[in-house]
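Lab notes, practical 5.
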Amino acid sequence: MEKLSLSDGEWKLMNLLWDESPLTIGTMVNALRDDTAWTKATVNIMLGRLADKGAVRVDDSGRAKKFYPLISRDDAVRQEARNTLARIRTGGLGLLVSTMARDCDLTDEEIDDLYRVLKEGRKK
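Output from the prediction step:
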């Protein structure tokens, strides 16, 4: 996957599309009404940017445009993690993981998953 970087607003739209798709602009505006004050024009511009990035597909064959995600949530999260690590180089992965562990309320399951991932990394 090419390097993909999503803004906070683009993450909001992508999360909607990953949860349910296809969606129309009007549906997305309504879904985000309590969280944002975005108009249809704002959402349309942001969806255009996402389409330009290759993150969404637009179907304009019907009365209302429908939007579909072209990338998976997992792929986007992986790319965002790589981008973050590349940006903050100082301290490396250990600092990032220790900060997350201290500052986030991790469940026992999340801690077990983290141990598993770290052990798998050691094998490689």
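Observations recorded by the TA: The helical segments are 8-19, 25-31, 40-52, 73-88, 92-103, 108-123. The chain has a mean pLDDT of 89.
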